[in-house]
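Researcher: Sequence recovery benchmark, item below. Answer with residues only.
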């Protein structure tokens, strides 16, 4: 992996927490900061496709707990087939 150097300003209290965590975990402070940058990048990424691209037909009303439970149980039975334990 190729890395690029950058400078950032950070709160001294945050840096102290990072220093303590790095010592406790036995890794470098830089590694913790890289992990944080990666998490921030992924949290702000714009994906090409929506997370849920499928649409489902429905009744237009909220199902009861029992209806949801029965629907899920039916789907599990269809997936596992007859005579198989789920």
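Model:
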């Amino acid at each position: 992996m190729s890395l690029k150097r950058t400078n950032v300003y950070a709160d001294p209290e945050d840096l102290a927490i990072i220093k303590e965590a790095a010592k406790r975990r036995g890794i470098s402070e830089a590694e913790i900061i890289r992990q944080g940058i990666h998490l921030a990048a992924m949290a702000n990424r714009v994906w090409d496709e929506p997370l849920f691209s499928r649409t489902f037909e429905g009744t237009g009303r909220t199902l009861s707990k029992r209806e949801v439970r029965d629907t899920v149980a039916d789907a599990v039975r269809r997936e596992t087939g007859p005579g198989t334990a789920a």
